[in-house]
């Protein structure tokens, strides 16, 4: 059976003394660059020389079903992103070697994805992407004992109920752009490194204390008023942009923190930052700051975003960022009263000798 009327070519090459058949679509290039996906003549990609780790990429074919598509039984990865699918082809349930499955940007509802919860042949899946569909609950993924990446972002999920059944092997969890109101059923995810819960309806940071391996926490666009990291100290990236914070207290124990994003809140004072000796990126733009405080001892700052505040004078900037004077390469101060000062940009470049960017102006 031909795949969507696509003519396939085969190339025999020698790998470690053995003949391997490479399968590729006419046109040669197997990459998934944006320019290729926009071409009028779309291409199907099958990668993997010996079939043991092959990938079938059917991104953006606008398929309503897979009836006319041949599904090789030895697939390692199946990407069905950006189609019109609402139900799962039963042949997928027989792919015992499948490790990565993407159903992103389709029309799946809860009933549509239900079969994967009982297809034991898929129990070896490590990556399951259900992003941008029509789910209203966390599907039961308890059969996937080796799951590493689980993405249910951009759905209509109001609760994290069901996460307790997700394997403790999980390292990346994405539940952004849903309607979640409470951080719960996370306690067993001891291996989790990335947690994305942005654009939900969260008001309280809670139940994080057992996530001792967490590296990145993304909670932007919620309704959080107070920082509570539940004693975690190993996080490297935190985003709390577009919340309802009025204080920066709560980060002082995160000594490994490298990037902190707090723009679009109601913060009036910079505090609790002096212990963050590894901080490289600090974004406190669009707040209510009138001065720059508590970062003079930091020595690794490279990017500092202070734009859209109420900072009056440039005179204290140099001393306020003294520890990173040689390190700083980017600073944003536009839309502050101080940005109206004569020779504003020149003054900043004199203060910070290695500056490469002031606001949107980049210096070569």
UniProtKB/TrEMBL annotation:
Record SUPFAM superfamilies: L domain-like
Leader sequence segment: 1-17
InterPro entries named in the record: Leu-rich_rpt, Leu-rich_rpt_4, Leu-rich_rpt_typical-subtyp, LRR_dom_sf
Superkingdom as given in the UniProt entry: Eukaryota
TM annotation in the entry: none
Keyword annotations of the record: Leucine-rich repeat, Repeat, Signal
SMART domains assigned to the protein according to its UniProt record, in alphabetical order: LRR_SD22, LRR_TYP
The keyword Signal is assigned to this record: yes
Keyword Repeat attributed: yes
One Gene Ontology CC term in the entry: cytoplasm
Name of protein: Protein phosphatase 1 regulatory subunit pprA
């Amino acid at each position: 059976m031909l795949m969507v009327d696509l003519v396939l070519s085969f190339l025999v090459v020698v790998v470690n003394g053995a003949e391997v058949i490479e399968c590729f679509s006419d046109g040669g290039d197997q990459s998934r660059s944006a320019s290729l996906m926009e071409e009028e003549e779309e291409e199907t990609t099958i990668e993997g020389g010996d079939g043991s780790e092959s990938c079938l990429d059917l991104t953006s074919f606008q398929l309503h079903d897979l009836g006319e598509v041949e599904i090789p039984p030895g697939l390692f990865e199946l990407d069905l992103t950006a189609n019109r699918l609402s139900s799962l082809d039963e042949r997928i349930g027989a792919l015992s070697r499948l490790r990565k499955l993407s159903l992103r940007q389709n029309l799946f509802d809860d009933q549509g994805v239900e079969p994967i919860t009982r297809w034991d042949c898929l129990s070896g899946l490590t990556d399951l992407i259900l992003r941008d569909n029509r789910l209203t609950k966390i599907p039961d993924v308890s059969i996937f004992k080796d799951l590493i990446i689980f993405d249910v972002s951009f759905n209509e999920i109001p609760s994290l109920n069901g996460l307790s059944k997700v394997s403790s092997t999980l390292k990346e969890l994405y539940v952004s752009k849903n309607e979640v109101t409470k951080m719960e059923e996370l306690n067993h995810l001891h291996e989790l490194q990335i947690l994305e819960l942005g654009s939900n309806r969260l008001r309280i940071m809670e139940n994080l204390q057992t996530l001792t391996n967490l590296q990145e926490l993304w909670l932007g666009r919620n309704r959080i008023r107070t920082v509570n990291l539940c004693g975690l100290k190993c996080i490297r990236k935190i985003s709390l942009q577009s919340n309802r914070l009025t204080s920066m207290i709560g980060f002082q124990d995160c000594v490994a923190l490298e990037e902190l994003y707090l723009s679009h809140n109601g913060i009036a004072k910079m505090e609790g930052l002096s212990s963050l000796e590894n901080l490289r990126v600090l974004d406190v733009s669009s707040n209510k700051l009138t001065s720059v405080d508590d970062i003079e001892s930091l020595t690794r700052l490279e990017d500092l975003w202070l734009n859209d505040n109420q900072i009056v004078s440039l005179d204290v900037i140099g001393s306020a960022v003294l520890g990173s004077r040689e390190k700083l390469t980017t600073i944003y101060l536009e839309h502050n009263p101080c940005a109206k000062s004569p020779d504003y940009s020149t003054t900043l470049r004199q203060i910070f000798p290695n500056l490469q960017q002031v606001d949107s102006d980049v210096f070569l």
